[in-house]
Each structure stands twice: as structure tokens, then as C-alpha cells.
Amino acid sequence: MTTAENAPSPADAVVPDTKDWTWVLERPCPDCGLDTPGVVATDVAAMVRANADRWLAVLAGDEEELRRRPSPGVWSDLEYACHVRDVFRLFLVRLNLMLDQEDPLFANWDQDETAVAERYGEQRPQALAGELAEAAEALAAGFEAVAAGQWRRTGNRSDGARFTVESFARYLIHDPVHHLYDVTGERV
């Protein structure tokens, strides 16, 4: 079978996640175990790098297994890794908006639409590993460059969620940690 034949088709669409995950800023996640309220924002850069290293280990696995969905409507490990790469990229854009503009409104992002449009299930794990590592390093460097007086700057999501750079950092780190749990079953 070719890679395209192994990949999920758009007909195998994942059930969209419409949950408002901002609750993780108020209490630990019962699934992945991350105590997001206890995360120190200045530690997020190191946490992003450590998380990316774990994703690189996942992506070093068997390509056929990486493409296999555990059940219909649930992303494969490869698709989760693509999502994490794109989260790192998107959050760097949003971080820079918060640092460069007064109280910006973030453009809406449909993660499920992106997964289909970018053909997550057909991407090459080795190439993805490089892209994920690059995106993680850029985001980590972005958080390291935040000056002490910038952690209180604000930004807004189109659904009304409002973040400071500090809460944004804590909110961000839950996503790749949680998805690593989705893939490995290992809690933090």
C-alpha cells in the first residue's frame, strides 16, 4: 500500500471538538494530569522544548502505526503530531500579536478544517519531526523573549476568551501535553 492509501480519507472525519478548554486555567486536567494553574509562565519555554522532544520520539516510530487511527473519528498519532506542530506555529503568531499590538483579536482557527486541508494523515513523519522541532524552538524562543512587563499584555479569541501573555502561556502548554497523553496514555 502507498502512503496515500494508508492515510484516513476526509470521509473518516474526526468529530469536531467544540469544548471550551479555557477551564484548564482554573483546575488541573483530570485526563492528562497537568496542573495548568500551577504552571509558572516563565517555565513554558522549557516545557515546550521537552514536549517537542517527546513528540520527536513518537514520530520515530513505525510509519504505518503512526498513520493508524485507534478508532473511527479519532486522530492517528501522526495527525495529533501535525496538530501540535500547527498549534506551536499558531501560538507564536498570537504571542507576537499580543506583544506587538494593543489587545488584539485573534483570527478564528478551525483545527478540524486545517487537518483535512493540510492532509495531516498523509504527511511524512520524518519531515514533520523537523517542522515540529522548528516550530517548538521558535515558540520557546518567543516565550523566552517576553520581558517582565509584557506578561500582563492581553489578547482575545473570537469566542470571547481573553488572555494575558501569562495565562496564554499556561493555556498553550496544556494542548501539546494533553495530546501527548492522547497518544501515549502517559500522564504528567
Using the alpha-carbon principal axes, give the shape: globular
| Largest sheet entry | 2 strands, antiparallel
Structural class: mainly alpha
Helix content: 40-55%
Tally of separate helices: 7
Nearest-angstrom radius of gyration?
16 Å
Low-confidence stretches: 1-11
Q: How are the strands of the biggest sheet laid out side by side?
A: 1-2
Question: What is the number of E strands?
Answer: 2
Integer average pLDDT: 92
How far apart lie the N and C ends? 37 Å
What order do the helices and strands follow? HHHHHHEEH
Please characterize this protein's 3D structure.
With 188 residues, the chain is mainly alpha-helical. The chain is built from seven helices and two strands, in the order H-H-H-H-H-H-E-E-H. Strands 1-2 form a two-stranded antiparallel sheet. Helix 2 runs antiparallel to helix 6 and helix 2 packs parallel to helix 7. The relative contact order is 0.22. The N terminus is likely disordered.
